[in-house]
Design a protein that fits this description.
Blueprint lengths: L5 H6 L11 H15 L2 H4 L5 E5 L2 E10 L5 E2 L2 E2 H14 L3 E13 L4 H18 L2 E10 L7 E11 L15 E4 L5 H11 L15 H9 L4 E5 L5 H13 L2 E5 L7 H10 L13 E4 L1 H12 L8 E7 L6 E4 L5 E3 L13
Parallel strand pairs: 5-6, 10-13
Antiparallel strand pairs: 1-2, 2-7, 3-4, 5-7, 8-11, 8-12, 9-11, 10-12, 13-14
Helix pairs in contact: 4-5
Length: about 350
């Protein structure tokens, strides 16, 4: 008899889970992508690649954006794409300089919507201080895509002496988050599903490169910078714990979450630790410098709600623990499956 086991069939196919940024995504990267391309730059698993050239070091990153809906409170797919790539380059400790833009547009897409998206991209690039210098446009037949997909790639320069990566976290480091979590993912979900709440929640999409320049320019001891996008804070912390082979403890009563966002998460059964952010960064900083770095972040327009949420330990390497408000501990694992598809 033929084998009709759906689980076996799914093993051979790409699922939505493969784009979640969680365990399934990481398995595909580790088991398929990395062995095939196999190079030291890719193996570091950072948001962008740091490249040594004769004149110095570059950071290079690329990402694709398929968000649904394409327009949402706080932005649209255009500034989301620019900000996302600017931030990925900045998290390598680099100063972003140039961006490319690739557009895949579905036949029949309104020109006025394309113009609106392009204008927000231009404004986002201007605010971040980067130039969009090259790109490509493809149009596919109606029904072969969903409105518009955007790919952006970015290049930046790393100053001499800067050495920031996900594998640099050290026991004793304090962990700073630059503001409230889960704003972007909940905004996308609410808009997509037509949910009406008595609140003004909007995406936190924002360029963080000026914040990073201020942090690095201070000369303080910064080990890791990372923006917790797909998979949220919980998954990103697990990535860093694995890269650096350290343990992480965070404190529930320190997590900055807007009350409306917390309420929506509770109502719909979502954990805000796994909801995407598009305008927040985490900084792993030595304890002696942590308060100074926190003050620098708070001076930036996108860091006013920054707080210290935890610390790095030498116990339980590769594990992340949350100290609850009642004094207990629970393991924060990497996201399994796709909690909210197409949020970026």
């Amino acid at each position: 008899m033929p084998d009709t086991n759906p689980k076996k069939e799914n093993v051979e196919k790409i699922l939505l889970d493969h784009g979640s940024g969680g365990k399934v995504s990481h398995s595909m990267f580790s088991d398929m992508i990395l062995p095939i391309f196999d190079n030291a730059e890719l193996a570091k698993r950072d948001d962008g690649a740091v490249l040594d050239i004769k004149e110095g070091r570059l950071a290079f990153s690329t990402d694709s954006y398929v968000v649904d809906p394409i327009f949402f409170p706080g932005g649209n797919i255009g500034d989301l794409a620019v900000n996302g790539t600017v931030n990925d380059v900045a998290m390598c400790g680099a100063i972003p300089l140039y961006i490319s833009v690739g557009l895949i547009i579905e036949e029949g897409f309104p020109k006025k919507d394309l113009e609106a998206i392009l204008k927000t991209m231009a404004n986002a690039a201007k605010k971040a201080g980067v130039k969009i210098v090259t790109g490509d446009t493809k149009v596919v037949p109606k029904g072969k895509a969903d409105k518009i997909f955007i790919n952006t790639s970015g290049i930046g320069v790393i100053q001499r002496g800067v050495n920031i990566s996900g594998d640099k976290a050290q026991p004793g480091d304090k962990i700073i988050i630059s503001g409230t979590i889960a704003d972007h993912g909940i905004t996308i979900l609410s808009t997509r599903e037509g949910l009406k709440f008595d609140s003004n929640i909007q995406s936190d999409s924002a360029p963080l490169n000026k914040m990073v320049e201020s942090i690095i320019g201070s000369g303080l001891d910064i080990h890791v910078l990372r923006d917790p996008t797909r998979g949220g804070l919980g998954t990103t912390l697990n990535e860093i714990a694995s890269q650096s082979n350290i343990g992480i403890n965070i404190h529930e009563n320190s997590l900055p979450i807007q009350a409306p966002v917390q309420g929506i998460c509770e109502l719909l059964g979502f954990d805000p630790l796994y909801i995407a952010n598009e305008g927040k960064l985490m900084a792993f900083v030595t304890e002696k410098d942590s308060k100074k770095v926190l003050d620098i972040i708070k001076q930036n327009e996108f860091g006013k709600n920054a707080v210290i949420i935890g610390e790095v330990t030498d116990r339980n390497p590769g594990k992340v623990f949350l100290e609850t408000t009642i004094g207990g501990f629970r393991i924060i694992d990497m996201l399994t499956g796709e909690q909210l598809p197409r949020i970026c």
